[in-house]
Amino acid sequence: MIEQWQAMAGDGREFEAWDEITRHAEDLPEGEVRTLIEELIEDLAGWPGRRPMPHRWWQRRCRGEWAPCFLLADHRVLYADLEMLAGNETCDPGAYEEFYGAAAMDEEGFFSSFNAVGAGPDLRWTALVSAAEGNSSSGGLELFDAQTGAWESDGVQENDHYIGWGEEVAFSPDGSLVAVAGRFDRQVIVWRVPGPERLWAAGPWPTGTEGAGYSHIGFSGDGKLIVAVSFAFPWEETAERQVVVADAQTGDVAFTTAAVAVGGAVLDHSGTRLALIGPDGEVPIYRLPDGEIVARHRTTLPSAGTLALSPQGDTAALGGDGGMELVGRFTGHVPAEGTCQAMTWSPDGPRGLFTSHEAATVIDRQGHALWTRRIEDPSGFLAAFTPGGRALVTAETYPAEISAWFLDRDMRK
Fold first, then answer.
1. Which of 61, 116, 137, 163 has the greatest number of CB atoms lying within 10 Å of its CB?
2. What domain of life does the native source organism fall in (predicted)?
């Protein structure tokens, strides 16, 4: 059958071939599914197309089920604009919707100048934050519910609690909270999902950041604290920025300091260690809540600007141009092509997302490529790891599509 599927894919029936493969695999035991995966990779040179999870599998997964056939899928399309796909002569929107179960876009549309994307660990919720668009919009937050296929945009920002020019968005490790950082208006807002219910807004905290706004937001590994870093223009990279650690449920400030920080700041699992990248590649480790610097490391990576902290807070992984580096209790250098756009700490250690002029790639601490994809415009590539780094979520505007790529395909409930 491999030869038959190969022939179908070769004459343009790739979608039809994949549909047949998924139906063939549904009753196979795990060992035979893994053998089929190896045969596809070997005989079809990595399979000429993507390997999407069908909607019928996704529905079972959302119910908490697991089946060996799920291992075949390398991604799930969470959202797609079928109206746009209808204009693509190579796509049958009816067949696409039956396979993916993706709902058509609402009247407000998907098109916007999005700055960041984030997703919860179970992939139900996806959040997008947008930039200001002249006099028509100050930017804001869009929430998509993959379980219902609905955008939860109305009422998310109301009562003068708007995110003006959203910079970054993050979900708590359990997926119950979503936090947004923005340049203007309320600057930091935290919602509870589902709902969405706004918990609190800082606009700004009384920490000397009045008017500055925030460019980074993140959670501790246990989800109890958030960390935010105030905004700095590119030509002010040596200026001090305010780093704020606050209670995720209330917004009460637990720690704040002024520091020259490149990019963001990260917390360990318990929120007792804070790390950032300072001048000349220095990586200070703060003990919280007293703020004492308990360790100083240094990276030699060019343009290091992304980092992740181990759950114990004793090792930092940094990403820059040409690779990632570990400093602290564990050390090492992993080369990679391109520039690091994001870092995360998974159960297997750090993972980094790198983009070059031709491709985007996720590597692990051994340098193994967990995922790679050709991209036409790196500047327009929007992606983020889910909490824990088991999946990578990408958002594309043309055609409008949000996809979750399984870095650990064996994502059992």
1. 163
2. Bacteria
